[in-house]
Amino acid sequence: MTEEKLGIRLSRIKISNYKKIDSLEFDLLPPLIEGDADILLLGSKNGGGKTSILECCSLLMLAGLFKEQFKGRFRRDETLLDIANLLVKAGQEITNIEGEFDHNNKSCKISLEINRREGFPAPTIEGDESLFDINKKDGLNIFDYPLNSIFSFLGEPLIIPPLLHFNSYRKVQESNPELGMMADDYPRSYNIRRSSGMRSIVNPVSSFKLEILRSLMGQASLFEDSDKEKSQIILSQLNSLIQRYCGGQIEHLRPLPDNKVDIRIKPIHENESFSFDGLSSGQKEMIATLFLIWKNTNEHPSVVLIDEPELHLNAEWHGDFVRQLYKLVPHNQYILATHSEEMFRSVDERHRSILMPDGDQ
Q: For FRET with 301, which of 11, 38, 91, 113 sits at 20 to 30 Å CA-CA?
């Protein structure tokens, strides 16, 4: 693996008074040798803090990517005051999260404070801030999309390379995309509503299905600015996953009323196609998660966080999922929170950690 291909990585994290976590600090060890997987599997009982660690990792990266958007926001009168109350440990007033990041010869430390009464002040960044000048998303509203996804108010993964976060409530929506959605700038196309003092997002269709639609249209050169060769590569990778996990391929669309289209899968040895929504939840999640990671990080190495990657999967696929992650995109840093013993056994002891409550140690 070349140094240029490596992406930003989180090397250390320290958390205090976050949800049920009193105090936690640990290093995320890099691979021992070139070509080894940069992966950490976190395990614990329910309520042990796995999901909280993933949330803190994402918050630190958002602080690095969108430092300016933290300034002057999240005051007592802002909508995210409810979030601050949710995150600060009961009986405490302030949560502190610190993380150390590195990329090639650059490094920086980010400190983020969450105040129960005052919300989120501006984060403190020490070191080389240019480390986060990587594929930045200008103008992204940090209120709406990232935090709704991280805290599972939205069933869509957070995809803003160099950060991908798949929450445990993710789901490929059983709905059909409209052709007009291809022109929208995801995720800004999401409908926004206000509920209980906080803005939430209503996702009309899965982002994964929009990626399929764009790839099919691009391959057919139906749009002026489409890259046919790139679309063919994307569709080929998608179909390799579909063939692996359901024995078919996406070949065409079926028009539906109201300008919608149904994505069809044709089995390899059969004549009749069926709707993508006809797949099991496990097949859809396996295909969608692996594809979105490959599509968004193949050229942009990222930190990829996945809560319960075994979601909807049968036991035989648990270890295969981890192996496919590294096979498809080996240059990412992966941090996974899981209950699966099979997933734990699929990696070396150096790449796994069991979280134990203080009373159990």
A: 113
Asked if 300 contacts 274 with a C-beta cutoff of 8 angstroms, the reply is no
Q: Six-digit token pair at 149? A: 């996804």
Which domains does the chain carry?
3-170+300-360 (3.40.50.300), 195-288 (no CATH)
Is the pTM here over 0.70, yes or no? Answer: yes
- The Cα–Cα gap between 105 and 128 comes to 10
Q: Model confidence over 177-215: pLDDT tens digits?
A: 776 666 555 444 444 444 444 454 455 568 888 888 888
Q: Please tell me the distance from the alpha carbon of residue 91 to that of residue 37, in angstroms, as a whole number.
A: 40
